[in-house]
Amino acid sequence: MPKTPVQATLNSSSETSTEYSISQLAKEFDVTTRSIRHYEDLDLLSPARRGQTRIYTQADRTRLRLILRGKRLGLSLEDSREIIDMYEPGKTNVDQLKKLIDAIQLQRNKLNQQLDDISKLLKDLNQAEADCIDALKTNGSQ
């Protein structure tokens, strides 16, 4: 059975037991340590602790990658959490895929509406500018 994009990411990354510091992940993903701590505060990430030091696993790294991917797609953190948490190893994860498709379609619809709004605004701006230029020509010749 073929793996879903989330399954492939989660499965390939769980094959090693590499550990990461918060600064390593921040550098790798070009985010601030504060952002990573924020995701932890929201229970999106659950690093182990050695004293005050956070120790991130390969699974945490994968979750962070998926959170950031969801963010790039315009998903809310809560939507990303729900989709990521739906993953079940060894299952088809059809519900997870349907949820992701729904979120993508919703985001696409929002962006298409914004694009339409921007097109209308640009048309209005062009008309207002043309009207101003015409008014200057008319007033300048008097």
UniProtKB/TrEMBL annotation:
Molecular function terms from GO = DNA binding
Q: Does the keyword DNA-binding apply?
A: yes
Top-level lineage group: Bacteria
> Where is each HTH merR-type domain found?
19-86
- Asked if the Swiss-Prot or TrEMBL record annotates the protein with the keyword DNA-binding, the reply is yes
This protein's UniProt keywords? Coiled coil, DNA-binding
What the entry lists under InterPro entries is as follows:
DNA-bd_dom_put_sf (IPR009061), MerR-type_HTH_dom (IPR000551), MerR_fam (IPR047057)
A single Pfam family it belongs to is MerR_1
Indicate the segments annotated as coiled coil, or none if absent: 94-131
Q: What is this protein called?
A: MerR family DNA-binding transcriptional regulator
